[in-house]
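Notes from hallway chat w/ T.B., transcribed later so I don't forget. T.B. wanted the structure written out for a chain they're using in a teaching module, and asked if we could keep both sequence and C-alpha cells in one place. Agreed to drop them here.
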Amino acid sequence: MTAPECTVFFLPGLGLDAAAAAPVAAALDDRFRVVPVELPGHGGAPDADDGSVDAQVDAALTKIQAHLQGERWLLCGHSMGGKVATRLAARALAGGVPVFGLMGVVLLAPSPPGPEPMPDEKREQMRSWIERGPIGEADARTFVHDNVGAPLSMADEDRLVASVRATSPLAWARWLEEGSLEDLREGIGALDLPCIVVAGDQDEALGAAAQPQLLSGVYPRARFRTLSSAGHLLSYERAGAVAEAIVDLWSEACLQAAAVPDAWARLIASERTVARARRALAARAVPDDPHYEPRVLDDPHLQLLREIAARLVPQPEGSTLDLAARVDATLATGGGDGWRPAGAPTDGEAYRRGLDVLRHVWPSESHAQDTLIAAVIAGEPVAGVTDPDGMRRWFEDVRFDLARVWLIHPASLARIGYSGFATGSADPATAGYASLAAGSRDDWEPAELGDDAARTRIGAPTE
C-alpha cells in the first residue's frame, strides 16, 4: 500500500466531535489521510485553559505535530473549526510554530475571523440550553434540526445528538460568549493560500450568501461553492461534495507544486530553524496560483517571461514553480536587489520595456529561442533589438531574478543539498555546524546529504 499524498486535518464545528470527519474520510480515495482533531471540550477532550481561539489552536497544533511526518497537508475546518483553521493557518505561515507543509484550506460554512454574525435570539437560545448543565436531548435534537437543509438519516441524527450532548457546557458557553465574538482580522491579515469555501444555501448565518463578504479579504485566492438545499452540518449532509472540494484543491493547486522532501520538511519544522527562516520558507512553499493575475506586467509580458523561464531554468515535470509569476509578485512588492544605475527606469518599467522588445523577435520553436537567448547574453546584434548591450545588461537581471526565485524555494534548497537555513538558532546546542569538512554531514542534516545517488540525481559532482 502506497503512502497517502496528503494529510487532511479535520477541525469540527461547535458541538461536533471527531466522528464528524468520518463521512468525508469515507468519501475520499487513498491519496488522502484524514486526521480528525478533537477540539477542547468536545468528544471527551479536556477544556482549554481559556476561551480564546488561540487556546483551541494550541490544542489542535499538539495533535497536528504528533501526526505530521514531513508530508504536505491541508486543513479542513467546519463552522467553529473554520475560525480555528484560519487562525492556525496564519500562525503556521508566520513561522512561530513548529510545523511546515501547509498547502491550503477547505472551509465548510466557516465562522469568520471577525465576530460571527449570529442573530441575538439564536445566541440566547443556545446559551439557555446549558443553564442547568449539559445540553439535554430535546435541545440537542433542536440544534441538529435547525442546522440541516433536509432531514438526516436517523443514525446520523442520533450520532450528532450524542455529540452535542457530550459537549462540555464550559466549551459551549465560551464559544458563544468569547470565541465566536473574537476579532482576529488584524492579526491574520490576508492569507495567500489556496482555499475553497463550501456552504449551503439553507444556512441562516454562515451560508453561501454570506461567505464571500466574510472571507474574501482574508483569503484573496478563495473560491466559493454553494450547495443547494444544504444547511450547516455539511460533513453529514454533503460528505461527497466536501470530499470533492478537497480533491479539487489538491489537484489544482498542490499536485503540480514543487514538493519538499519529508526529511527537509521535518528539518524546517524543527527547533533548529528559527521562526524568521521558517516563515520565509513557508511562504515560498505555498503552491502557485493557477489563476495568477500579473500586478506589474501584463498578460502577454507574463506569458513571454514564462517561456523565457522554461528555457533558462528547466524544472522536473510535475514539480514546477511559476517562476515568472513569482518574479512579477517580487516586482510588485519592491523585492528586488534595490540597485539601479542613475537615470535607469524602475525594475518594473525595465521589465516591461525589455519584454516589449523581445516580444517582437521571440520565435516559437525552442531551439530558436535558445539561439536568441545566447545572442542576447553575448550582447550580439539581434534583428529588431536596437541596443544589444542594454538588452544584455537587462537580461542579466532577468536571469538572476528567475534563478533566485527558483533557488530560494525549499524544494530547491533540498535539491542542491543546502541546510544553512537551520543553523541560526540562538541556542548553542542547535546552532551552526559541528563539522564543515568536505564530504561530511552533521547528524541533524537529512541523510541524503553526501549520498552519491542523491547528488547524481540533482546534478552535483560525485567523488
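Follow-up for T.B.: The chain has two domains: 6-254, 294-412. Might be a good example for the class.
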